[in-house]
Fold this protein.
Amino acid sequence: MEHWWRDAVIYQVYVRSFLDSTGDGIGDLAGVRAGLPYLKKLGVDGIWLSPFYPSPQHDHGYDVADYCDVDPTFGDLAEFDRLMSAADRLGLRVLLDIVPNHCSSEHPWFRQALAASPKSPERARFHFADGRGPNGGQPPNNWHAMFGGPAWTRVTEADGRPGQWYLHMFTPDQPDWNWRNPETAAEFERVLRFWLDRGVDGFRIDVAAGLFKHPDLPDSHDPEADARTRDSVNPLAWNQPEVHDVWRHWRAVCEEYTARDGSERLLVGEVSVPTARQHAQYVRSDELHQAFFFDLLSAPWCDDAFRKVISEAMQDIAGTGSTVTWVLNNHDQVRTVTRYGEFTPEGSGLGPARARAAALLMLALPGAAYIYQGEELGLPEVIDLPDEVLTDPIFRRTGSRARIRDGCRVPLPWSGQASPFGFTSGTDTARPWLPQPDYFAEYATDRALADTRSFWHLYRDGLHLRSTLPHLGEGSLSWLETPPGVLAFERGDGFVCAVNFGTEPVPAPVAGAPLLASGPTPAGVLPGSTAAWWINDL
């Protein structure tokens, strides 16, 4: 059996912002198909597509109205099939983003629930409950939605009177499914089989630690926690034990398809839990194949912090028989260049150097890795988008720009000196759905390909070596003794990766010139904010 996923490098395509084939300013599936040769040249093993299903787009596709079709904004099923065929010809795997915790308020089943009466079978598919207080005017419990405000919205019944409340852990446009209702499990098995029959290689599972809520829906002891952190910290709403039964069933469905041709269908979960040990429970041999390990993404730029999270992952997650799934960024996070240091359009400051070093470190670690689109260009976060163009529901719900996600979703620059930078097809006048800053010209793909010192070439060279060196990919690591501020480990027979987290140069842990480095690295020296790879017997 081909265990391709264990050390695969997957590129996350945020479809709206990748490449627009129609000139309407919104990326689409045909644009993704046109960009596949670029991704093949980069050297990734496959792609993960953000949701492209029919949706009112209140949360850009994570509010799904139909799980088995394509929104006309992005194309149709015939275009999806063409994309699958093109990816197959290039040897690229395709993962879909599936959203099982919640759907759109325009989903037919939820519309039926609104039209039905309390305690009806239609409402049992979701979490409807009577309110508290006089006339049921207060929410059923004190839970907060992670995108701001209460987690409950009251409905108007058919007779015009205020009625029950429904649960939505994100926004009122995204009602939560009731996974204690067997109809929900049956419907999602149908969805899985629909896409598996069309040839997909697996699924990225949104909110994989969610789905089940405490059956009594009691008050939270810390009702402000979700509002403060926008994380899955309410133990009554997340990480319930029953969720593991869902993943066991989904794993069995995938293995049924795997048995047909020997190629494993992958389940990778967005699992937000407090510890690596809890994370490991999701990747046991009969559950998810992988789950994103977000601790590396959230670690401060510090050798001790990186060593701690890497060691915990290797001990607790790799110990299950799975491999660690490393990430430095995604569509919900501040871009790496900006997160690691102050950014200026000219690229000065520590952010770019640290981001390059972190990328080389991640690609040297045992297991799989996911790369968010634009990271290979060194794109910074766009932090000065005007309020009137912001689309993130967090901004709409809270009025605050804190932790909004539009800045990492600005459409990619492909070529040229001015917006739309080749993002739109056949026109230089179309306006991308989010405005691109003028300085994106410095990060355009055509410039990156032509400049051997660019982020793109660092990623391409790292991916090429990762695929050819027997030391890399799946396996283990051993830490090396280093001076303060330096992290170094050995892989296989003599491969060494080292990162200098400080700003001053230190002696390199290996003699001779490095095989690959994130910046200029003289023999015998490891400059500050630099990572490098060596093989001792070169």
